[in-house]
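Quick one: structure for this chain?
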Amino acid sequence: MSNEIREKDHEWVKNFHSNFDRLLASLEELLSQHQPSVYGDELLTDKEVAYLLKVSRRTLLDYRNNGILPYTQVGGKILYRTSDIERILINGYKEAYRYSESG
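Got it. Here's what it folds into:
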């Protein structure tokens, strides 16, 4: 790109503004579709949680049945609060330790 000064009627400037306007319209559309989370907490589906935890959906069923992972059911859809998942992960966290070599 050269260092020349471009006027507002220059084709490059017009193209830039056109692209910028389209980008802005796309962002506004995306933001208008965003639904706020419930009580400040995002809800995730079975598929999303299984992906995040790197487990199968069957394992999630076991977690639910054993009372390990809280959930809510709306109709036939199972949903999980991100705060519950975070709490479970934090509660299950184990500190690393070192073996004593003098032992």
